[in-house]
Amino acid sequence: MKKPTGGKVNRTIRWSMSAVMSLMSVSAGWAQGAERLPDPQPVGMVDEPCPPAITPPPAVRALLVDLFIEPRKLAAGDVDRLVKDPEFRSFEDASRRLSAGDWAGICRFSAANRAAPAAGQTPRVVFMGDSITENWLLADPALFDHGVVNRGISGQTTAQMLVRFRADVVSLHPQVVHILAGTNDVAGNTGPTSARDFENNIMSMVDIARANGIRVVLGSIPPTASFSWRPQLNPVPTIQALNAWLRSYAKRQRIAYIDYYSLLGGASGELRNDLGNDGVHPNRVGYRLMRGLVEKQIGGAGK
After folding, report:
1. CA separation (Å) from 48 to 37, 63, 89, 110, 114?
2. Is 276 helix (H, G, I), strand (E, B) or coil?
3. Which of 118, 137, 190, 238 could bridge 28 with an S-S bond, Cβ 3.0-4.6 Å?
4. Which range marks the domain in which residue 169 is found?
5. How far apart are CA 182 and CA 249, in angstroms?
6. pLDDT score, position 17
7. H/E segment holding residue 177
8. Handedness of CA 118, 302, 161, 245 (dihedral sign)
């Protein structure tokens, strides 16, 4: 896969993808709630630090599915439909203000996490990850039923996931946690980091899960040859090296490991065009293939 050349299509996609990522971090599973954040927001240590959740307008959600989940080749006009949409702009602004005071995303699932035990619901499996996990709910909602819950947040690095791991995984007392992370570490979404930092965060999440009797299923970092929001990077060798470590670590620790990289990747380390629309995130066809692998480890949905 060639990197963006700076043409009209790529400039538009590059400009918009950071905004799309922030929006998709709330598009798949936020509960119904206020359209605007309360003002003023809480300060300091309070009993309830989390504002009411917000939800994307149905038209925006449908457009996201059309652009990124349904298999297609993205063009400048496609992305313009989203970027220039006034509902998109309004919701993007609200979501940015929400995340500004919640670096790790602790508030994202706080209401849902409280509601689950109150309703006597104990999930069998929790999916922990970033947008590649979160978008799975848009692409295949039937997978996340009958005790399988999604705790993916778009744009997140393993450092953020580690902070919220106890709240979003351990507190739910699942039998299994599926960890799929690393794309945004490679992209440096929360600043410069190192391979050792990534490894430490993965190992810490595994340690916490095991200490609480939760079986771990570890996924490889999916393939990508470029990031539209970090066009100066060449992620292929870094992803390959981190995946080699993940495979080795999983073997040493006797943890189930799923090789999504080989499943989805092309000859040059790119996400295959037929399996992802933007070169980073799988589309519906890609997720269908991923489901086949993950169900071998967690059992079929509904079991």
Report:
1. 14, 33, 28, 10, 12
2. strand
3. 137
4. 110-298
5. 15
6. 46
7. strand 176-180
8. positive
| Together in a domain, 33 and 122 | no
Output the six-digit token pair for 85: 């949409």
CATH code for the domain of 273: 3.40.50.1110
Q: pTM of the full predicted structure? A: 0.88
Tokens of 224: 């990508």
List the alpha helices (DSSP H) in the chain. Answer: 8-27, 58-64, 76-83, 86-100, 110-118, 131-139, 158-168, 183-187, 195-211, 236-253, 260-264, 284-298
In the chain, the amino acid numbered 295 is E
Q: Which pLDDT score is estimated for 8?
A: 38
Does 223 lie in the same domain as 142? Answer: yes
pLDDT along the chain (303 residues), means of 10: 40 43 44 42 86 84 93 88 88 85 93 82 94 96 94 97 98 97 97 98 98 98 95 97 98 98 98 97 98 92 50
Whether 178 contacts 128, CB under 8 Å:
yes
DSSP string, 78-99: HHHHHHT-HHHHHHHHHHHHHH
Q: Which two tokens stand for residue 280?
A: 């980073």
Start-end of H helices in 101-140: 110-118, 131-139
Together in a domain, 78 and 150: no
Helix or strand or coil: residue 185?
Answer: helix
pLDDT for position 7: 39
Is the separation of the CB atoms in 227 and 278 below 8 Å?
Answer: no
Q: Are strands 148-152 and 176-180 parallel, antiparallel or unpaired?
A: unpaired
pLDDT confidence of residue 80 = 84
Rounded CA gap, 154 and 51, in Å?
19
Closest CA to 30 of 106, 132, 111: 111
Single-letter amino acid, residue 250: A
pLDDT at 300: 66
Indicate whether 146 and 215 sit together in one domain. Answer: yes
Asked which of 49, 68, 100 is the last residue of a domain, the reply is: 100
- Work out the burial of residue 32: count CB atoms within 10 Å of its CB; fewer than 13 is exposed, 13-18 middle, 19 or more buried: exposed
